[in-house]
């Protein structure tokens, strides 16, 4: 039987907490549990306040006229908007530093006062201490699992990801806690464009679009030879539509990075820098429209039927025009949604659960696979 190391790690955390509770007894463990709860609550409050501050500042910077600002402040404002996660981290550290100094000073006596109120006969009960250890262990498991969940959102860790996916307790927490509560929090800060930035998408030099009723148009792509050759190399050895689609997704998210200069050109100067999929391939940079067009070229050249979707991406308060793709899985007879733009930030956006909660489709271009 193969051990699952994520499950083993979580079990050791729980057993260690139970042993600590048993060794300390009810009174001392009560003090530790209260202190731990206050600390977690303070961290949560600082995270929430830091995130709200970042959202507010990001919206304010986006609506402000930065041309009149001093160069140093303008650069700082644009840097904050380019890296909202870093901004949230800075705000969290500042708030945590202030609150830790103030609140802990006020609340430090509280656990001791609670312990003093417990009768000695009850306070020395090791069984009750172990029971409180279970509560402390569950809390620690939830926190450590959340850290693992966040790490898997931001980094490509295939071996750890497989272990996590096979761990029953981690899956339970992911389905009931992390996906509904943590994922929307981190997904709010993924890049989307400003209003109107996707208008030139259908005018790309190698994409011909024939409008049709129902919000979906038929498209024809003339794939350059270098992109077609690359597609064949990427999908070599893949025999299923899903395997080909995932291979292209993984290649693109690791070889194309988000072009914040192009973003700034549009947002701050009203200048849209149109580029072809070949230019995206050569420079290794692009915004969502460029990611989606390059993916469509690679998928089409691999014999896949693909869509370029346009709509609104993100969540309330942090949403905007966005582009992504869908690939037809002929074996499963279903469309696979994927977002290589967001995938380059968090490698979780291939057929992700809840994909359509953050992607709101408005129009689509259907491109049938090149089966030659």
TrEMBL record:
Regions that span the bilayer: 37-61, 82-107, 127-152
GO cellular component terms attached to this protein's record: cytoplasm
SMART domains noted in UniProt: TGc (SM00460)
Protein keywords: Membrane, Transmembrane, Transmembrane helix
Keyword set includes Transmembrane helix: yes
Transglutaminase-like domain sequence ranges: 280-342
One Pfam assignment: Transglut_core
InterPro entries the record matches: CAP/Cytokinesis_protein, Papain-like_cys_pep_sf, Transglutaminase-like
Name of the protein: Transglutaminase-like superfamily protein
């Amino acid at each position: 039987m193969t051990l699952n190391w994520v499950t083993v790690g979580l079990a050791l955390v729980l057993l260690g907490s139970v042993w600590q509770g048993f060794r300390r007894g009810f009174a001392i463990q009560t003090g530790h549990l209260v202190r731990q709860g206050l600390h977690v609550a303070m961290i949560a409050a600082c995270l929430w306040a830091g995130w709200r501050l970042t959202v507010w500042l990001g919206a304010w910077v986006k609506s402000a006229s930065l041309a009149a600002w001093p160069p140093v402040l303008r650069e700082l404002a644009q840097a904050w908007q380019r890296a909202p996660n870093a901004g949230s981290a800075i705000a969290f550290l500042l708030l945590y530093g202030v609150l830790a100094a103030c609140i802990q000073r006020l609340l430090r006596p509280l656990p001791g006062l609670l312990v003093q109120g417990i009768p000695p006969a009850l306070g020395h009960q090791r069984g009750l201490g172990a029971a409180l250890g279970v509560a402390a262990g569950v809390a620690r498991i939830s926190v450590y699992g959340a850290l693992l969940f966040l790490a898997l959102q931001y980094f490509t860790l295939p071996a750890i990801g497989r272990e996590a996916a096979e761990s029953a307790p981690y899956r339970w927490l992911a389905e009931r806690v992390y996906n509904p509560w943590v994922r929307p929090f981190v997904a709010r800060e993924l890049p989307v464009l400003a209003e109107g930035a996707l208008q030139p998408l259908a005018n790309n030099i190698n994409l011909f679009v024939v409008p049709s009723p129902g919000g979906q148009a038929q498209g024809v792509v003339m794939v350059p030879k270098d992109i077609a050759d690359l597609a064949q190399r990427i999908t070599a050895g893949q025999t299923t539509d899903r395997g080909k689609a995932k291979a292209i997704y993984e290649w693109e998210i690791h070889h194309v990075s988000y072009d914040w200069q192009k973003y700034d050109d549009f947002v701050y100067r009203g200048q849209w820098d149109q580029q072809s999929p070949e230019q995206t391939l050569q420079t290794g940079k692009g915004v969502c429209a460029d990611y989606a067009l390059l993916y469509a070229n690679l998928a089409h050249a691999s014999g896949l039927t693909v869509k370029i979707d346009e709509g609104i991406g993100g969540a309330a308060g942090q949403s905007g025009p966005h582009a992504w793709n869908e690939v037809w899985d002929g074996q499963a007879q279903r469309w696979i949604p994927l977002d290589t733009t967001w995938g380059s930030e968090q490698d979780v956006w291939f057929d992700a659960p809840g994909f359509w909660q953050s992607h709101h489709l408005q129009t689509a271009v259907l491109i049938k696979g090149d089966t030659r």
